[in-house]
Batch of 3 targets.
Target 1
Amino acid sequence: MPIKQALELAAEADLDLIEISPQATPPVCKILDYGKYKYEVQKRKNEAKKNQKIVETKELKLRPMIDTHDYEVKIKQAKKFLSQGNKVKFTMRFKGREAASDMGAKVLQNILDDLESLIKVDSEPKMEGRQMVMIVSPN
């Protein structure tokens, strides 16, 4: 219907003429209370925001010469982060000639073996400068 006629209908009903989809041919409009419409849109937006889960990436820093107890503590922390639904980034830091040996890769492989039922690997262990990085997420 013509715009003038639609505006007259909206004025008679004490409501507003709201353009719902301007890209359509012809544009789609509705006659309704604008304040109530904005309130409902905001309420739907807040509801969607409440239901979404924000996935964080937690970082655990390790060294290639890690002791068994320290290793177990890091595994325990990783399990806690994974159970909360977060990703875990393992960072193996090297000093001096440690990067030349494969001890860091062995530690990261042990982590993969210990957590294999709980995780899927997002990025395999790879060297980035003087550190080796691996990212895992919960199954």
Note: The beta strands are 16-21, 28-32, 57-62, 87-93, 119-128, 131-138.
Target 2
Amino acid sequence: MLGVRVIDVGGGRFDVRVVVSSPYDSRFRFADGWRVLTSDGDLLGERRFRRHHALEQPWTRTLRRVRIPPEVRRILVEGHDVANGYGGGVSFVAVPNR
């Protein structure tokens, strides 16, 4: 992951915009998503891809309207790839207006 932006869309919901780059993008090994967790490990949302993005580097995708509880001040965004699962690219991001 190259960057994460959390955007307050109101009502305790946030868009999570992630910029991804995958140096090994092929049909057999590629970044295929990410998940959003609290610092305690509770899953808040997940975004997955069905194809590689070899011709689109880096690429940006948004997980919309993620409900983040009011007591959560920062989230963890963790990358996933086809070959290795979760891990590798991890970002801690402050939740705006908290």
Note: The chain has a mean pLDDT of 87.
Target 3
Amino acid sequence: MLIAGLQKLTLLDYPGKTACTVFTPGCNFRCPFCHNALLVTQTVKDLVSEQEFFSFLSKRKGILDGVCITGGEPTLQKDLIPFIKKIRDMGFLIKLDTNGYKPDILKQILDNGLVDYIAMDIKASPEKYPATTDMKDFDFSLILNSIELLEKSSLPHEFRTTVTEDFHSEQDFFEILRLFSNDTPYFLQQFRDSGNLIDGGCTGWTAERMKKLHAELEKNHPDVHLREG
């Protein structure tokens, strides 16, 4: 398992839990607003070894509730499932972040009950995915498959979109909401420039405009929320 970074404590990444966060390198998307660009575009030289990670985790039993696995895109890691099993065997809860482009891996994880929470990014409205991800032959059916898998599962999950001026209009979000049911949590994340973007030209919506969008969407989708970036 390739581990590009370890945040030893987070109170934000896993809703309602105290956790650490594991960052995996590499991604199949090239979203300009990605705030972890170095994990996507460059080879990470100073990897954290599994031995080091599990040694850290063993010392956090009774202190941490869980582990967040994010990226990059974790489902690209060939050792992801064995890695998750090791964490679960230690008694920790597991949250997985994914872009949903590998529904085959997601199905294995769901079928075997390997994680406790999944957050799936919805990058844009369906027709804007090729431009947003820089993939000309984008297969949106893979995204739909992942949404369906999560919707049919009993696993706690959320969908979320990071909102930018460059790739999102108000109408896009009404199209996004049609992709899943009204009782599914959907989060609008305010874009913040981390200084580590694939494209430094991206800008976010103002807080006032985000609140107006939230109010409009909430009329049709009661479980929509604002989350600051």
Note: The first helix runs from residue 37 to 41.
